[in-house]
Structure formats: structure tokens, C-alpha cells
Amino acid sequence: MRTIRIHADLPLVPGTELSLPAQAGEHVARVLRLVAGDPLTLFNGDGSDYPASILTVGKREVTVRIDARQELHNESPLSLTLAQGVARGEKMDLIVQKATELGVARIVPLLTERSEVKLDAARAEKRLAHWRAVAASACEQSGRARLPEITPALPLSAWLDSLVDDGALRLALLPEATRASRELRFSAAGGVLVVGPEGGLGERDIRALTAASFDGLRLGPRILRTETAGLAALAALQALHGDG
Q1: Is the overall model pTM greater than 0.85, yes or no?
Q2: DSSP state of 15
Q3: How far apart are alpha carbons 102 and 76 in whole angstroms?
């Protein structure tokens, strides 16, 4: 039987009863059509699943009882940050969704030299909330109990200025690079991977990354779309150095 997992940004304590957040409650009642007595699993991002039982299903409220806590150990031992040039529309949603499934620890949306997406303050806030919801949904599906951190979108230069020297391997996907994934050696600090937007990284971007000690990484002889490149790199790095 398929386990239904629901993200609830609430304190979860075994033995207590609570009302689900409105959006989660609506999903349980109207989409999943669960009823009183049905089991489900909640998680809030603390690394544990919380098996629960539905007590009541109303028009505007779903109440549940938390039955237990189960600590999960399915996070990748390789901590990876995906610094992704913001892509247009559903491409960025796909990147966030699949990167979450692939176990990424952090996603940094970047505004680069060739970025086509323009975000004012209001739109940036809405997109951030949307991307975080996409990541939560991907965690529900994939069985993760820790949500990846998704930061507000930043210009590449501002993000580079904010980096600290923590020992993480700094990489940028570049078609002309010669370094291969199998040659990399990661420390406990993991790595940071930069991927350009639809137009790729510009010369100014590459100079800034080089000055910040980023090495070029090459996946193969073909040019990949932005929505493919980062995901392919994450899968390769996980297989070679993380989950594999």
C-alpha cells in the first residue's frame, strides 16, 4: 500500500492532535479523498516521519493524531549546493523538483549575465514561495524528510561575495572544461555546482567564477539544456561520490 506523505510546517509530537494547514487539509480531503480513520504520514523537515491517523475531515478543517516518530536516514552523504541560473517558467520548477529528488542540500537561484528572467521584489518573493512548495511536494513523493534550503534569487556577483571558504569543492558546468566527474575528490564540506541559464554563462560570469576559485566541470561532448545540465551533473555526482 502506498504511503501518503504530507508536509506540515508545524511542530509534530507523538500523542498530540492537530489541525492540518489549510492547503494540506484541502489536498487530503478534496484531492486524496481521505476519510476519518485513514493513515497518513506527516513530516516537517526535521529529518523524521510522523505516522498519523485522520480523526475528522470537515469542509474547512482536517484533524489528525500523531501516532509515532520515525527518524529517517536517507539523506545523501554528499552535501551539494546547486547554484542555478534562473530559467524561464516551468523549466525552473522542473529543476527544483528533480534536484530535490536527487538529494540536493541547497538551491541558489542566480541572476547571471545572460539571464532572461527579470524579478522585481514582489515577483521574486512569490517565486521563492512557489519553488519552496515545489520542493516540499518533491519531498513528499521521494521520501525525503529534510527539505532542501532554497535561498532568495541573487545576482551572481552578490552571491560570490557572500561565500565563505568552508572547504566545499567549487564547480561550474562549462562546455569547454576538461575536468570529469570521476576525477573529483570531495571533503566533508561537499560541493557547490553552478549552472548557467538558457543562454549559458557569459564571459563576465566565467571571469568572476574563476576569480572565486571555481573549476570548470565537463559532462560530455554534447551541449545540454539548462534544465538537463544541472540534473545530469547531480545524478552523476551522487552516483560516483554520494548515494552510489
Answers
A1: yes
A2: T
A3: 9
For the segment(s) 80-241, the CATH number from 2.40.110.10, 3.40.1280.10, 1.10.10.10, 3.10.20.30 is: 3.40.1280.10
* pLDDT of 244 higher than 80: no
For 176, list phi and psi in degrees, rounded to 5.
-85, 0
Cβ distance 199 to 88 under 8 Å? no
CATH code linked to domain 5-71: 2.40.240.20
| CA nearest to 229, candidates 133, 91, 134 | 91
Please choose, from the candidates 9, 11, 30, 19, the residue with its C-alpha nearest in 3D space to the C-alpha of residue 56. 19
Is pLDDT of 51 > 90? yes
Q: What are the residue ranges spanned by the domains of the chain?
A: 5-71, 80-241
Alpha-helix runs per DSSP H in the chain: 22-26, 90-101, 121-142, 156-162, 203-211, 226-241
The backbone torsions φ and ψ at residue 53, rounded to the nearest 5 degrees and listed phi first, read: -125, 140
Task: Say how far apart CA 115 and CA 92 lie, in whole Å.
Answer: 12
What's the full length of the chain, in residues? Answer: 244
pLDDT tens string 61-90: 999 999 999 999 999 999 999 999 999 889
